[in-house]
Amino acid sequence: MEKITLTSLLPFELILPFLGFLLIRSKSPTQALIYRSFLGSIAALVYSIVGAPDVALTEVLVGTLLSTLIYIISIRGCYSLVLLVKEDEIFDNSMYKHFKDAINELHIHLVVKKVDEISLDEKGNILWNKVNILNGSPHAALIQNNLYVESPILREELSKTFSLRKANFTIIKK
Fold first, then answer.
1. What pLDDT is stored for residue 170 in this prediction?
2. What is the largest CA-CA distance in the chain?
3. Which residues contact 114 (CB under 8 A, 6 or more apart)?
């Protein structure tokens, strides 16, 4: 059997800090999950190559599989979008259907909350801090068949969904 040198492990050793950097800088929980899984898998590969199969097995089982499953359950259970709709607002049902399909495509739980009023500033921007909301989830609002999304990251992810692109749906960035 051929002896493995440290230089043959160099490509794997260079990938680990790069994946760690991507993991730390990731803005999307789903991307972070993918980076963490790759990081654990490559670390397990390095451990097994250098002769630590017990550490490699532990990394695969606990560091990669278990933490990934717990993270998926946490994201799925906690990540929801609160859609604010004025009590007296009448909106297009097809628009709401496309929006709901996009939310389902992103695997986000949708919570519709009826409110009395949505405060706007003089430029027409929503004053998100003035809306009576009780949780830390991202928010969106339907006002006169226009969709306003609080989170720029979520706004970007929604604009990439097949459901909203197919419907030529525009999201207002105010």
1. 65
2. 76
3. 85, 86, 87
The pTM of this model reads 0.54
Q: What are phi and psi of 109, to 5 degrees?
A: -80, 130
Separation CA 16–CA 128 (nearest Å): 40
Question: What is the domain range of residue 147?
Answer: 79-172
* Residue 120 domain flag: yes
Cross-strand partners of 24? none
Cβ atoms 42, 16 nearer than 8 A: yes
Return the CA Rg of the chain: 22
Instruction: Provide CB contacts within 8 A for 169, sequence distance 6+.
Output: 95, 98, 99, 102, 147, 163
Which residue shows structure tokens 């990251």? 153
> Do 148 and 172 meet the contact criterion of CB atoms below 8 Å apart?
yes
**Strongest mean pLDDT among 3-12, 54-63, 88-97, 159-168:** 54-63
Same-domain status, 25 and 108: no
CA–CA distances in Å: residue 50 to residues 5, 47, 105, 131, 148: 9, 5, 42, 57, 53
Specify the residue for token string 């190559």. 49
| CA distances from residue 156 to 17, 23, 27, 102, 160 in whole angstroms, order as listed | 27, 19, 11, 12, 7
Amino acid at 90: I
